[in-house]
Amino acid sequence: MEVPPLSLYVHLPWCVRKCPYCDFNSHTAGNAAPRARYIAALLADLDRAAAVAGERPLVSVFLGGGTPSLFPAEEIAQLIDGVHQRFTLEEDVEITMEANPGTVECGDPAGYRQAGVNRLSIGAQSFDPDALQELGRIHSVDDISRAVDEAQAAGFASINIDIMYGLPGQEVAAAIADLQAASELRPAHISWYQLTLEPNTVFHARPPANLPDNDLAFDIQTAGQAFLREQGFFQYETSAYATEAERRCAHNLNYWSFGDYLAVGAGAHAKLSDASGVRRYAKPANPLTYMESVERQQAAPDTPALSSADLVFEFMLNVLRLTDGFDLELFERRTGLAAQSLLPRLLNCREKGLLEEPRRGFWRATELGQRFLNDLQAEFLPLPRLSLYAQDLADAYISSS
């Protein structure tokens, strides 16, 4: 098993207000957030992360939340300087920061650019005032345009705009209008994803009325995909569209390619590979508990290496999101498992029309598989044993090699 590329995720957990659809580890605090103490904890946590990384360089850094743009530029600079002091970074390292539009949440794009951020992800969600209100957003439509204009004026060439579809009462025309408004701002990247009712959210407990049914949501999806293609955005992942290959999100690509990532911050999750296997780690979710654990120098609990069955599922859970697919060589390099162990399920999914093999050893989801991605991913859940039919398919495939 090779040592894969390494990324770093930094979690900044506070928001002005919790959105009713959000299931991320975010907390409402506003100006009461203990930012200085939290930054100090992050820097101390980075010391430990750097010791784990050793000489491995970082290919990307992602500041997520919460709303990282609630932190002033000088504190973001302190964080990024701390990363540079502790790690080796690739020459073309991508450093992304999430920001929300609006006077309160947008912060200082020019200051963030000067601090070292080179990619900004702006959470617009919609350009419909009524939809913004229903989603619990506190910015206006004008705030979105202003945030993008300020980011471009600050020198950001790589800007992502987040847009949601499948909103309450939304029809195809309204969803396309959102994409039209976003594309007119000339971002390099658009993340376009469906509203889902996640557990432990207000919307899950009290679903909004008038949500599009599955057929309408699919009509919106296909119309939106066609529109984005016409506007020069190519889809490279389930919900990610870029104007050119260089503008794809390197950090998320590393996730989806089953790369490694360090993580600091409340509730942050890490994945690391070494000679003994692949392990996952998680930091305490509560910001206060997290800060206290770092201040007390509490070691993270040891976690067992993922089983072979879990490795198969987690690898497929990620790579199946990529529209270009993956090759079996990547599977072997990232999991340390033989490609033959994956073949029976791949061939079974091909029989069901969910996967295709455009060339020997290279696999990707079909249009049907992309539409029913959750069902396709579930085909790779750990099972007590493979069916005899699936094994027969694999034997026939191997014998034809």
Molecular structure report:
The protein is of the alpha/beta class and 401 residues long. It folds into two domains: 6-255, Alpha-Beta Barrel (TIM Barrel), CATH 3.20.20.70; 308-399, Arc Repressor Mutant, subunit A (Orthogonal Bundle). Helices cover 40% and strands 21% of the residues. It has a nine-stranded mixed β-sheet, sandwiched between helices. The chain has a three-stranded antiparallel β-sheet with strand order 14-16-15. Strand 4 (58-65), helix 2 and strand 5 form a beta-alpha-beta unit. Helix 2 (73-86) packs parallel to helix 3 (109-115). The longest helix is centred in the N-terminal third of the chain and has 19 residues, at 35-53.
Topology, element by element:
Layout: E1 6-12, E2 14-15, E3 27-28, H1 35-53, E4 58-65, H2 73-86, E5 89-99, H3 109-115, E6 119-125, H4 129-134, H5 141-153, E7 158-165, H6 172-184, E8 189-194, H7 202-205, H8 214-230, E9 234-237, E10 240-242, H9 250-256, E11 260-264, E12 269-274, E13 277-282, H10 287-295, H11 308-319, E14 326-327, H12 328-335, H13 343-351, E15 355-359, E16 362-365, H14 367-371, H15 373-378, H16 388-399
Parallel strand pairs: 1-4, 1-11, 2-3, 4-5, 5-6, 6-7, 7-8
Antiparallel strand pairs: 8-10, 9-10, 12-13, 14-16, 15-16
Helix pairs in contact: 1-2, 1-10, 2-3, 6-8, 13-16
